[in-house]
Amino acid sequence: MEENKNLQILNNLETSSSTCDIEIDDKLLINGIENTQDLRDCLANIEQELQQIGQLTVEDCINNGDKIADLASEIEQCDGILEGMENMLVNFLGDLGKISGDMKHLKEQSIEINQQLNNHQRVRAELSQFVDDMVVPHSMIKIITEKDVNSTEFLEQLHELQHKLQFIKTQQFKDAKSVGDVRDVVENLKYKALEKIREWLLLRISLFRKPLTNYQIPQNALLKNRFFFNF
To answer: Which parts of the sequence belong to the Vps52 coiled-coil domain (predicted)?
Structure first.
C-alpha cells in the first residue's frame, strides 16, 4: 500500500514538472527521496521552490517592464525605419528604370543628331565647292583685264577661268539655275582673255619676221605660255 502511494506521488511529481515546463535536477530528486521518508514532503518542498522561482520570474519581468517596453518600442521603430528603407529602395529602383529609359532615348537621339550632322557637313562641303566653282571673284576679273599676259598671275587665273567654263558647261546640262547668274560674266571674261592672248601671240609671231632677230627669245616665250593655245 505504501509503495502504491509512493508511485502515485512520483507520477504527480512528473506531471507537475511537465506542466510547469521546468526541468528538475535528477540529483535533487534523488537526494529528496533518500533524505525524506515521506515523498509527499519532498513534493511539497519542490512545489514551494517552483512557486518561489515563478514568483521571482514574475518579479523580474515586472522590474524590467520599462526595459521590455523600450525594447518593444525600439523594435517597432526599427520596423518603421526598415519599411521606409524598403519604400525608398523601391522608388530608387523605379528611378533607375526611368533613368535607363532616358539614357536609351538620349543615345538614340545622339545617333540621329550625329547622322544629321554628318549629312549637313557633307552637303555643306559639296555646296561650298559648288559655290567656289561657280562664283567669279573680283580678283580674277581684275587680273585678266589689267595684268600683262606674260605674267604668272594672268596664267594662273586663265587656268582657273578654263575650269569655271567647263564647270558651268556641265551644270548647264543639269539645268542649274545659278548658271544664268554667272554665264555672261564668265563669257565676257573669256572673250577679254582671248583678245589679250591674240594680241600677245601676234606680237610674238611678228618678231620672227624681223631680220637679225634672236628667234630663241620669242620661241621660249611661246613655249612657256603654250597653255594659251589650249585655251
So the answer is: 60-231
